[in-house]
Amino acid sequence: MDGDDMARIIWNQVKEKLILPYLDIELKYFDLCMEQRDRTNDQVTRDAVAAIKLYKVGIKCATVDPDEARVKECNLKEMWKSPNGTIRNELNGTIFREPIIIKSIPRFVPGWTKPIIIGRHAFGDIYKSIDVVVDKAGKFQMKFIPDDGSEEKTYNVFDFNEAGVIVGIMLLREITLYT
Predict the structure, then answer these.
(1) Contact 133, 98 (CB under 8 A)
(2) What residue stretches are annotated with the Isopropylmalate dehydrogenase-like domain (predicted)?
(3) Cβ–Cβ under 8 Å, residues 63 and 83
(4) Which letter, b or e, does each residue of 91-112 get, where b requires 16 or more Cβ atoms within 10 Å of its Cβ?
(5) Which runs of E-coded beta strand occur in the chain?
(6) pLDDT for the residue 175
(7) How many C-beta atoms lie closer than 10 Å to residue 131's C-beta?
(8) Domain boundaries, the chain
């Protein structure tokens, strides 16, 4: 899955120099650059997820998550969400990364012999967050409504004296570091 900017160049070099000369493999290609996501209404990301589910593997380059300035600059239809979030949410939100250990490559901490594995439980994290733009003064509240019919709870979060932005309203269930 190609990405944006230098990630495209680096991934192409990795494929050309380290993969294709040594493996007889057909690589499925998905261009996840910001402009292609815009052209396809982000269908390209959903197609990439379908391929990951089918082939049980995927390699993704870094992508740009457009902000309001990029939307204007690149004439995008909307501020597309992160492909990382779409991919992770479609794959049930949990990704574990494990090190690839190569004996000929020295480690950053020479005395450390055990691998470090970070398990990031991505359910509901920043990739499922929402941003809110308010255009006037007012009160921002959050409400929890229990399924069991018990009393609702309302939380006052912020009083806006004028227009403003709320960035990244999210729920983070768990981050665990394993060593």
Answers:
(1) no
(2) 1-178
(3) yes
(4) eebeeeeeeeeeeeeeeeeeee
(5) 94-97, 117-121, 130-134, 138-144, 153-160, 164-169, 174-178
(6) 44
(7) 13
(8) 5-91, 124-174
81: Cβ contacts below 8 Å, ≥ 6 apart: 42, 65, 127
Note whether 15 and 27 are within 8 A (CB).
yes
Q: What pLDDT is recorded for position 119?
A: 47
CB 30 within 8 A of CB 2: yes
pTM: 0.56
Residues in the chain: 179
Q: Pull the structure tokens for residue 60.
A: 């993704």
- Cα 13 off chain centre by: 23
Q: Which residues of the chain have pLDDT under 50?
A: 118-123, 173-179
Provide CB contacts within 8 A for 60, sequence distance 6+. 1, 3, 32, 48, 83, 84, 87
pLDDT at residue number 137:
92
Q: pLDDT (tens digit, 9 = 90+) per residue, 8-47?
A: 888 889 889 888 898 888 889 999 999 999 999 999 999 9
Q: Two tokens at 4?
A: 């944006």
